[in-house]
Write a structure and sequence with these properties.
The complex is a heterodimer. By secondary structure, chain A is an all-alpha fold. Chain A is built from 18 helices and 4 strands. Classes of the chains: A mainly alpha, B mainly alpha.
């Protein structure tokens, strides 16, 4: 298997490594908490409330549009805990970062228990990223010396004169902590989905920016409201964030439904007897893996997925099905017409224009780029290769290895003429990884 | 908060103008009276900040986000300003941004909205003070005291504002459209009541952060940031939902491309079924499921060969059997779409008959889901009132009569009664076809048309001439086949296989 620098995250199995590191951090924090001087009873009460809220936040995780999981309430409570100083007008907590991290890990683990009992998958790397992020916030706020070696939290003592600086620096601490979280998650997704790290990070930051702003603001305002309100501030000031979470959940829900409807549309050709069973779904899975490998952004990957699912829909306009549904075997002019019909049907919806553009060019040979200087979308080139591979291999389980070799040979014959060499390389990488997984399992 | 363009564009009744002027006068004297009674706003920094926020909120107009959930930042700002600036400030902060709102509303509409907001501000402010709301809250200590002396009076002020909003709006609607104000009032209160509670709570949080926590104007940023993100997500939700509706209708379009003689059928059935749900007093959820099932009930026709769809009159029983598989195929097509889960049974059983002789599962009576029974009746009614090559469209009365004749045999008597009610209440235009379309339709069999289906079914040449009475045989064949969905049914099973089953004793 050829491996370059781009495969480094996967080779290092960063998503596993991340979990190990955060377990070490949590264990260290617990040790530090035990070793630290005894805390007053009131501190214990405050920590217990935070742990409970963090656990509740973990139970109410949400899935972002695009399929990533996060726990906004847990993170906001974690940041607030990291920045807690005065609770009530005349009480000041006396714990340090170690206790903060220990409390957060207890809350997060407790929150994962219901999912574990029901045997739902718990993404250890996401959990680890959240914990590390809270740890960073606690360290920055409580121990990093800024003015005369005094940490940020002492700024609160001259609140009246420095309130703007303090409030903004609290938001910034949360921002840095959020970036650490995005960085960790990007590392994990790059490793798990075999994507370039840089691309994952950009997507992660872009998608997390909105929710991140809401989180940073919520953590700060809880910490600030604790002085007049006491610990009641924690549940009460989470209200705006709960609303945000509700809105995002609805957004993600409709995005998922939309995807299901596109899948149903993609089965039109299958049920109409035009294509082989599950052909669109297989081509879509392969295309998405190739697109990720080639570093496409999340948004482009979504368009690619929809286009791959619908790539054969032009066949619905045919009176008689093509034998076996393999467009790859059809004459070039027919292929082009089917592609055009498909783009037409998709364009009629009025909302899938990006997808229609991809569909319109899916049958064009790669040489058009070189000879005619045409601009074929990368997604179209990917679908062309994925479709050819699936048509050639088919669904037969028997003699799969030989068929695979024959298919790759056949595609190699069209390299540079019919198919984009860079895309074919991606196909081979993706297939090698699959073979490795099958071989290992 | 609900704001309205009180005047329908063309011409406004004279009453509206008078009404708006009266409201404006009340608002003006209310502000003047509070100025005298309570005094001008004393915290000018707060006044300026909140005014700016008000202008920003109106600038990012809450467009229709298609989800029945909208967020009005202006309402939050107005409620918080009751405590921070007093009644006069609150009235100004609500009224000015709306008065100078850009974006095509008429001057009269803007005047009305501004006066209404000024009234809300004054009433809210006075209610707050009357109920013992603290004016100088910096001295209050502890959460319990904050809740009692700020939270409770503020929520009361919030409710008062909502009521003022509802009263003034239903008044203007009474003047401009003649809708009875009581009905409209109830509609506004139930519609925007919960949102107002939310605004009240968030306004309260803003106040606490501003003064007791001493964060000052920056607290507006901290509180509103999560809400801006929420608003953004709601807008995204609306856009995505519209996109999804379009994609869903593409499913119907695809089928109607394949079977052009059925164009428009799905949409008509969906409307008719929704009407019929009313006399049957179905719940909202069920009506939704019914509407989607009706829209998609024939989607499985995509899996029926074009030859069979276009010229069924010359077909054998075997071919007709293939046609009858469309209800099962439809379910197969859409079963993975979560929100359609309530509609799947409706689609699968829409050709069952009350006497148990239908397909695919030969269910009888109450075993058939209500949604399917409704679609079956609506289906037949629409088919009968559509022009066909061999006969012109029946009038709604004639079609109803045909359906009533089949009551208790093919159709559920209750549902037929519902159809009778609908035909009485609503205008149902028959679907006409041009000469050209009629020519196209020659030999076309509408499988929903009960009269034609019975004729064709008895006349169709039977494979091997063994089956005399098709329907019991169909039942047996179905029973043998189990649930009717063979594991690999990506294609119509080849004809000999079906013939085999039909021939079985």
């Amino acid at each position: 298997m050829r491996l370059g620098l781009r495969d480094l995250p996967s080779r290092l199995r960063l998503h596993r490594l991340l979990a190990v590191v955060s377990i070490a951090v949590a264990a260290g924090a617990v040790a530090a908490a035990i070793a630290s001087p005894r805390l007053p009873l009131q501190d214990w009460g405050i920590l217990a409330v935070f742990a409970v809220v963090i656990a509740v936040g973990e139970v109410n995780r949400i899935v972002l549009p695009g399929g990533r999981e996060t726990a906004p309430m847990s993170l906001a409570a974690g940041y607030a805990l990291a920045m807690t100083w005065d609770v009530g007008e005349d009480y000041r907590v006396s714990f340090g970062a170690g206790v903060v991290v220990a409390t957060a890990s207890v809350g997060m683990l407790a929150g994962a228990v219901p999912a574990l009992i029901r045997r739902w998958p718990v993404r250890a790397d996401d959990l680890a990223a959240r914990l590390l992020s809270v740890a960073v916030a606690a360290l920055l706020f409580r121990h990093l010396g800024v003015s005369d070696g005094q940490p940020l939290l002492t700024l609160q003592d001259n609140w009246a004169s420095t309130r703007w600086v303090t409030a903004i620096s609290m938001v910034m601490v949360s921002g840095v902590a959020l970036f650490v979280q995005s960085f960790c998650v990007a590392m994990a997704t790059a490793s798990r989905d075999h994507r370039p790290f840089w691309r994952s990070l950009v997507d992660e930051v872009r998608q997390g920016a909105g929710l991140g702003a809401a989180l940073a603001a919520s953590g700060t305002l809880i910490a600030l409201a604790e002085r007049p309100m006491g610990i009641v501030a924690l549940p009460v000031f989470l209200v705006p964030l709960v609303l945000t979470q509700f809105a995002i959940r609805r957004f993600a829900g409709i995005r998922a439904t939309y995807g299901q409807t596109i899948r149903a549309l993609s089965r039109l050709t299958e049920i109409g007897g035009y294509t082989r069973r599950d052909h669109p779904a297989r081509v879509a899975a392969l295309s998405v893996a190739m697109g990720r490998d080639l570093g496409m952004s999340d948004r482009d990957t979504l368009d690619l997925e929809y286009a791959a699912l619908l790539h054969d829909i032009g066949q619905v306009a045919l009176r008689e099905p093509i034998p076996g549904g393999a467009t790859m075997m059809a004459a070039p002019a027919d292929q082009d017409r089917i592609a055009g019909d498909g783009a037409g049907i998709v364009r009629q919806t009025g909302v899938l224009d990006h997808v229609a553009v991809i569909l319109a060019s899916q049958a064009k040979p790669y040489r058009h780029v070189r000879e005619l200087g045409e601009d074929l979308p990368l997604a179209s080139r990917i679908i062309k290769v994925a479709n050819a591979y699936d048509d050639l291999v088919g669904e037969a389980r028997a003699r799969r290895a030989r068929k695979h070799t024959a298919a790759i040979e056949r595609i190699h014959l069209g390299l540079g003429y019919e198919y984009d060499p860079r895309v074919v390389e991606a196909l081979i990488r993706v297939l090698e990884r699959r073979a490795a997984v099958v071989g290992a399992g | 908060m609900t704001r309205r363009d009180p005047t329908p564009r063309p011409a406004e009744p004279p009453g509206v103008r008078v009404y708006v002027l009266v409201v404006a006068a009340i608002a003006f004297s209310g502000v003047a009276a509070s100025w005298v009674l309570v005094g001008p706003p004393n915290d000018l920094v707060a006044l300026a900040t909140l005014l700016v926020l008000g202008f920003i909120s109106v600038g990012v107009q809450e467009r229709d986000v298609g989800s029945k959930v909208s967020l009005s930042f202006l309402s939050i700002v107005v409620i918080a300003s009751i405590v921070l600036t007093g009644p006069v400030g609150s009235a100004l902060i609500g009224a000015l941004p709306v008065m100078f709102e850009r974006g095509g509303r008429r001057a009269l509409a803007r005047l009305f909205n501004a006066s209404m907001l000024a009234c809300q501000g004054v009433v809210g402010g006075l209610v707050y003070l009357r109920l013992g709301g603290a004016q100088d809250i910096a001295t209050i200590e502890g959460p319990a005291a904050l809740l009692l002396r700020v939270g409770v009076p503020l929520m009361a002020a919030d409710v008062a504002q909502m009521l003022v909003n509802a009263v003034l709006l239903s008044g203007v609607m009474r003047m401009s459209t003649g809708v009875p104000p009581r009905r409209f009032f109830a509609q506004i209160v139930t519609g925007s009541g919960p949102a107002y509670i939310g605004y009240g709570v968030i306004g309260f949080l803003l106040v606490i952060l501003w003064i007791p926590a001493d964060v000052g104007p920056f607290s507006a940023v901290l509180i509103l940031a999560p809400l801006f993100v929420a608003r953004w997500a709601f807008v995204q939700f609306g856009e995505e939902q519209r996109a999804h509706e379009r994609a869903l209708s593409a499913l119907v379009t695809a089928v109607e491309t394949k079977d052009p003689n059925a164009a428009g059928h799905s949409a008509r059935i969906a409307r008719l079924a929704e009407w019929m749900a009313e006399p049957l007093s179905m719940g909202t959820q069920d009506v939704q499921a019914l509407r989607y099932a009706a829209m998609l009930h024939d989607v499985g026709k995509i899996g029926v060969p074009t030859r069979i769809l276009r010229r069924p009159r010359r077909l054998s029983v075997v071919d007709l059997e293939a046609l009858t598989r469309h209800s099962v195929l439809g379910v197969k097509l859409v079963r993975d779409i979560d929100f359609l889960s309530g509609s799947l049974d409706g689609i699968r059983h829409h050709h069952e008959r009350w006497d148990g002789l239908g397909y695919p599962d030969s269910l009888a009576g109450d075993e058939i889901p209500l949604i399917s029974r409704i679609i079956a009746v609506a289906d037949a009614f629409d088919a009968l009132t559509t022009d066909r090559a061999e006969r012109p469209a029946l009038t709604p009365a004639q079609a109803l009569k045909q359906i009533e004749q089949r009551r208790g045999r093919q159709f559920d008597p209750h549902v037929v009664a519902a159809l009778a009610t609908v035909v009485e209440r609503h205008e149902w235009p028959v679907t006409t076809a041009t000469e050209e379309q009629l020519e196209q339709m020659r030999g076309y069999l509408d499988h929903d048309d009960p009269i034609a289906w019975e004729q064709v079914w008895t006349a169709a040449p039977r494979s091997g001439q063994i089956v005399q009475d098709p329907e019991p045989a169909t039942r047996q064949a179905r029973r043998r086949r189990g649930d009717g969905i063979p594991d690999d049914s990506r294609r119509i099973p080849d004809e000999s296989a079906v013939a085999e089953q039909v021939r079985a004793p």
